[in-house]
Amino acid sequence: VQNAPCSAQSLDAFYFLQVRDMMAKRPEYLDDIPKMPDFLVALRPHTVWEKTPVKLFCTVQGNPRPIVKWYKGGAPVDPLSAPGKYKIENKYGVHMFKTCTLKHHTYKKLLFDLNSIEDDVKRVQSFKSVDNQPQFFDIPFLQLVLLILSNTVIHPSKLEVTLLDRFKVSFGVEGGSISLVCSMVPVLFDDEGLYTLRIFTKDGTAEHSAYLFVSDAAPSAAGAPGAPMSVKAYDINSDYVLVAWKPPNTVNEAAISGYFVDRCEAGSDTWVQCNDAPVKVCKYPVHGLKVGRSYHFRVRAVNSAGISRPSRKSDKVTALDDAESQRLQVIKIEGRYDIVIKDDDLEGYVTIPGEPTDVHASEVFKSYVVLSWSPPSPRGRAPLWYVIEKVSGTGAWQRINTAVKLHSPRYPVFDLQDGQKYQFRVYSVNLYGSSEASAPSEPVEKVDEDGVPSAPGQVIATRNTKSSVFVQWDAPKSPKNLMGYYIDGRVVGAKEWFPCNHKPFKHTRFVVHGLIPGETYAFRVQAVNVFGLSEESQESSPIAVEPALATPSAPFGITMLSCDGASITLAWKSPKHCGGSKVNAYYVDKRNADSLVWKEVNQSAITERTCTVENLTEGTFYEFKVQAGNMAGVGVPSAPSAPMKCEAWTMDEPGPAYDLSFSEVRGHSLVVLWKAPVYTGASAVTGYFVEMAKKGSSEFVTLNEEAVSHRYLQATGLEEGATYVFKVRAVNASGVGKASQLSEPVCAKALPGTKEILASVDEETGDIFLSLEACEICETSKFVWSKNYKPIGDCPRVSVSTKGRTSRLTFTSPDKDDLGRYSVVVTDTDGVSGSHTLTEDGEFTSLSYAIRHPVVPLKHGLNYEILEKGHVRFWLQAVKLSPSVSYRFIVNDKEVTSGEGHKISHDVATGVIQMTVDHFTRANEGTYTVQIHDGKAKTQSSLVLVGDVFKAALKEAEFQRKEHIRKQGPHFSEYLYFTVTEDCTVMLACKVANVKKETTFHWYKEDDEIVPETPPNVMSGACALPIPLFSRKDHGVYKAVLGDDRGKDTSVFDISGQVFDDIINAIAHIAGASASDLVLQCTPEGIRLQCYMSYYTEEMKTVWKHKESKIASSEKMRIGGTAEMAWMQICDPSDKEKGHYSIEISDGVKTHTRTFDLSGQGKEGINTLSRLNVSNQYRGRVVGGLPDVVTIMEQKSLSLTCTVWGEPTPEVTWFKNEQEVASTEHTKVTFDGGKFASLVINQVTPDDSGKYSINVRNKYGGEFVEITVSVYRHGEKIPEPKLGQPKTPAATPGEARWAGLVTERE
Fold first, then answer.
1. What is the rounded distance in angstroms from the CA atom of residue 501 to the CA atom of residue 485?
2. Minimal CA–CA distance to 1217: which of 1286, 1122, 1143, 1114?
3. Which of the ends of the chain has fewer CB neighbours closer than 10 A, N or C?
4. Residue of 938, 1034, 926, 1042 lying closest to 980 (CA atoms)
C-alpha cells in the first residue's frame, strides 16, 4: 500500500466528511447508546401553608429508563406506611409526588441507572413552614449509587401476606401461551424454568415456586428436531459478532447434523441465512455486518429428516467498535465541565498506523477458526482497516481477505485444510499507507478442541409426590465446558423415551413432573455442551410414582355428634395428605376450655373417625384435638376444636349427619354421601334433605323436595368449574334435625383422564362384568365396589379382581337381584370413582348366553352350484374356522363320506366347507345337511333339494355335462349373432374355439349352403357372413356348422319376427344418422323430394309429413325409394302442395327428421311452383332409348345410346359405379348434334359389369338414369345377384352437386 499525499486542507476536508457522516448516523445510535440519568425539569421551591396538600413535579431522562425513588428526610417514602397520605405517579417520564398533610420536611428524588457508575451531584429544593412564615434552604443531593435489580433493597411494609392460592407445575407447548401470574405469548423453550412469586412483608417474605415445562411444538417436518434456544451474540465489533446457542434435546429424532444461523436487521422481517453449510458446533462467527446497524439472530437445527422451527430471535445488538469508548478520555474543568479527548489526538501527527499485536486464534473448531488481534497504536489519523495473510509450512504468504475490508480485530477463516498447520499475520491499513506485518501467530490447526462431554454417572430416582419423581445423578468425569443436562424418561415396558426437560438444566438433580400416578418409570441423563449431547447414561432402576413417605397431615373438622351429659361423641375428617401410606390410627386429646393442659383420651389407636369421650363433667366446656398416624409415625395435631358444652341432648329431632364425602365428581354432577346421625331423637330417622350452595354464598338450595331414605344423592345441573359446599339434615317423625357440618368445598370438574365404568361380557367365559380403569393409583390404593353405595360383602354370584390400574366386578351367576346401581371408589387418590346402573334390558344376558352356548357363525348357509362337466358342489362358509374343526355331511338321514363319486373338503383360511357330487342324477334328490363342531361352538345348515328346484338343478347339470362333451371338439365359444356395419351391411358373426387347420366351416340358409366370396377362416377364432342390401327377402333360418374328426357343433340363427325388426332398427339407426337434408328434384311428372342415406329399404319405419300431417302414398303423392335414397313424388304440383315437408326415420329408440320448406318467398318473387314448371319444361332430360338392365356375353360390344333434350343444350356425363367414365379405346363416349349420347364398350369383360348411369343437365335442371350391366361367360346362365356382393353407394357426385344447385335456385 502506497502512502497518499497529505496536506492540512485534505485533513480538514477528511474530518469534516467524517463528522458529517457520524451526524447523519446519529439517529440510528440514539436508541442503543447508554445515557446517564439526568433531570430535564428539576424540582422547584414551593411556598405553602402547613397542612395544605402540595404536588411536586419533575421530568427525568436516561437510557435505559432510570428507576426513580422519593425520599423524605433521608428515608425512602413508603406510600403504604400511611395510606392516603402520599401519592406517587409516573406518566411518560413526568414524575409527581403528592402529600396531603404537609409539615416541615425535605423531599429528595433519586434516579437509579442500572448501567451507570458515574457520580452525579444534583440539588433539590426543600421547604418548611414555621409560624406561618415560609423559609427556604438547600440540601446537597449525595452520590448516585449503582443498584442491581435483583439485589435492590425492598423495604418491608406492615402488611401480613398469606398465599391463598398457588400456581401449579405447568406444561406448555412451544408456540402456545401459558398463564402463571403473568402471560407469555408465544412461549418457547427459552421460557422453561423455575418461576417464583415472592412477597416481601414486615416480618419476612412469603413465596411460592413452580417449574414451567415447555414441550415440543409440531415439527416443520416429521422427525425434524426441536428448535435451538438461548441465542445470544458475544464479542460484538463493528462488522463481526459471535453467535452462540444451546442445542435442543433429541430423544426419538435423528441426531442433529448441524445448524443454520440467520440474521435480520432491526425493524425488518427479512431473514438472511449466514452460513451456506450447516455448522456442527453451537457457535458461529457472523461477519460482513454494516457498522452502526442493529441486528437480530436466530438458529435452526438440521437432521436427516429436515430443518427445525427457528429459535426465538436474539436481543438486538448494534455493530459498533468496542475499542472506540476505550480510546476516550474525560477531563473535568472546575468540577463543572467535561472535555472528551480521543487517544488519536495525543498520538501526534502520525499518518501511517502501527502494526497490530497479539495475533492469535480465539476460537478453533473443525468448521472454522476465528482470528483475533489487538488494534495498533498509533492508529494514524484516518479510518483504519486490516489485511490478513496466512502461510502453511514453508510456503509463501497468501492474502485471505481479498474482497473484504475488515474494520474490526476479528475475522473467521473457513477454508483451511484438515491436518495442516497455519500461521497468520495482520497489516493495519489506512488511506496513507500500510503498517509493517504483525508478528506471526502461533501455528494453528483446525481441530475440535474438546468434543462432547462424557456420559453422566449413576442415575438414582426416588419418590417425590404422587405425580413426580426426584432424579439425581453424578456429574460426568469430563465435563468440557458443560452447559447443562437433558433428562429422558420412559414407562417400563415401553420402547420410546420422552423428554423430561427441553432446556439444559445446570444442576445434577431434577424433579420430573407430570407423571402418571402409580405408573413405573426409568430415567436416563445426557450432558450438553457447545459440541452437542453426550452419550446416554445408564438407566435408573425402575421406580413407581408414589408420594414420599411422611407422617399424615392434621385431621380437621371436629364436630359433636351426640352428648348424654357424661360423654360426648365426636367425629372428624381425614387428613388431606396421608403421607404416602394408609392412615391406620387416630389419637384424641381433651382439655377444659379454661385450662392449658391436654390429656390423652385413648392410649390405644382408634381406627375409625369417631370417638366417644367419657367421664366428662356435665355443664363443662371441653376442647378436643386429634392426631393421625401411619407407618411413618404420628402426625401433627389438629387445631383445637371449638369449645363444646357437655350437656345432654333431649330434642325430639335427630342430630346431625356426619362424614360428608363425594364420589363421581364430574363437570355437571356429583354424588354426595354421608353417615347416619348418632343421635336419632325421639323416633327413628326416616329420610334426609341435602342442601347446596356455591362456595362463599349463604344461600342454600334444597336439592330434593321429598326426603330420601338412602344416604346418598346425585346433584345434577352443576356449573362446570364452580365450587360448591353441602350440608345434610336428617328427618324423623318429629321434624327436621340439625344440619351437618359444612362439607369441604368441591369443584365440579372431572379429574384429568377420568374414565367411566365399562359394562360388557367376557368373550371367553360369557360372564357379565363391570370394569374401571383408574386414571391415578398408588401402592396403598384399593378398589372398593358398592351396590347402591353399600359395600358388597361375600356373595357367591359376584367376584372382584384387580390387575394393575383396572378392577373388574364379575357376575358369575347373574340374577334379577343383581340389578341396581354399582359404584367403585379408588382409595388414596383424589377421588377416582365411577358408577353404572344395571337394568333389565336383556342385552348383556343375551350376549352372555351366546358366549356360553357358542354357535359357529356362518357367512353363507348351505347352498349349491353347478360346475363344469355337470358336477354339483354343495358348500357353506363360516365366519371363522379353527384348524381343529370337525364336520359331516348328511344326505337323506345318511352320512356321506369322501370317496367314489363324492369329494369332501374344507379351507380354514376362507371358512369354506364343501362336498362335490361327480355324477348328479335323479337319485340325488332329497335333503342335505352339514353339522359343524369347532371347539365349544357348533352349528348346522340344511338344504332341501326336491320338486321343481331339484328338476332345475338336474337340468342344468345335464346341460353342463353336454357342454363339457361339446367343448372337447371344435365348438362355438359364442353362438351366431348379428351386427350392422357403417355401410348398413348386416353381418352374421360367431366365435369358435378348439379348432385346427382341418376344421371345416359351412353357412346354410333354409338348409341351402351359402358360399361367401371370402371363405371363412376358423383359425382366426371368428367367422362372419355379410348380407348386403338387407330386406324382407333375407328372412329365414341361418345355420353355421363347424366340424372335424373330433366332432361337430352347430349354431342356428332365425331371422324373423322380433330378430328381423331388431336388424331393421339397427340399419335405421345408422342410415338415419347418415341421412342428408331433403333436396328438390324435377321430374317429368312434377317434382320429387329426395333424402340420401347410407342405405334405404322400404322395411324401415319412415314417415313423410306435410304441414305436420302424415302423407299416405297416392296417385298425387307417390312414396318410394332406392337403395341410396328415399323419395316422395308430387305429381302436377299446385298451390295446395305448398308448405313444410319432412321425413322421419325411426330406429325404435330415436327418430331422425329431415325437412324442406316448399313455400313462396315474398310479393316480388315468382311463384315457386311456377318456376318449377318452367324448369321442368326446359330442363335437360333423357327422351328415350336406354334400358334398365343389360345382360351381355363377354367379348361382345355394348352400345348404350339415348336421345337427350334440353333448352339450352344440356351437358352429358357417364358414370360407372359412381366414377366418371372417360373416353378411351375400350370405352368410347360420344355426344352428337346435342341430341344423341352414346357409350360404346368394345369386347366387354366381366370387369365391365356394374352400375352405369347418365347425367343430363342444364341450368334448369336435369335427369339421372341408371342402367345395370351384367357380363357373363360363354356357356353360363344369366347371372343373378349373389349374397355377399357389395352394394352400390348411394349417389353419384354429379347428382349430389346438381341437387345442391337446384336447391339453391329454388
1. 9
2. 1286
3. N
4. 1034
* Residue among 283, 235, 239, 237 nearest 258 (CA): 283
Surface-to-core class of residue 288, CB atoms within 10 Å of its CB (0-12 exposed, 13-18 middle, 19+ buried): exposed
Q: What share of the chain is helix, strand, coil (3-state, %, to 5)?
A: 10, 45, 45
In tens, the pLDDT along 1038-1050 reads 999 999 998 899 9
Question: DSSP character for 606?
Answer: B
Task: Please give the Cα distance from 37 to 1287 (Å, whole number).
Answer: 116
**Cα gap 380→382, rounded to integer Å:** 6
Over range 249-260, report the average pLDDT: 90
pLDDT tens for each residue of 352-363: 888 999 999 988
**Could you give phi then psi for residue 1275, rounded to 5 degrees?**
90, -15
Q: Buried b vs exposed e over 577-599: b needs ≥16 C-beta within 10 Å?
A: bbbbbbbebbbbbbeeeeeeeee
Residue 675 in grid coordinates: 353417615
Q: What distance in Å separates the CA atoms of residue 404 and residue 399, rounded to the nearest whole number?
A: 11
Segment 1005-1025, tens digit of pLDDT: 988 999 998 899 999 999 999
pLDDT for residue 418 = 82
Question: What is the pLDDT at residue 1003?
Answer: 93
Q: Are 634 and 626 in contact (CB under 8 A)?
A: no
Handedness of CA 505, 510, 516, 519 (dihedral sign): positive
Q: How many residues are listed for the chain in this entry? A: 1306
- Find, among 802, 917, 930, 937, the residue nearest to 870 by Cα: 917
What is the distance between the alpha carbons of residues 1143 and 782, in angstroms, rounded to a whole number?
96
Q: Which amino acid is at 858?
A: L
Q: Is 889 exposed, middle or buried (0-12, 13-18, 19+ CB in 10 A)?
A: buried
In this prediction, residue 469 carries a pLDDT of 93
If DSSP codes are grouped into helix, strand and coil, which group holds residue 299?
strand
Would you say 880 and 857 are in contact if contact means Cβ atoms under 8 Å apart?
yes
Are residues 702 and 725 in contact, defined by beta-carbon separation less than 8 angstroms? no
DSSP code per residue over 1030-1066 = --GGG-EEEEEEEEETTEEEEEEEEESHHHHHHHHHH
1178: alpha, beta or left? (left if phi > 0; alpha if psi -120 to 50): alpha
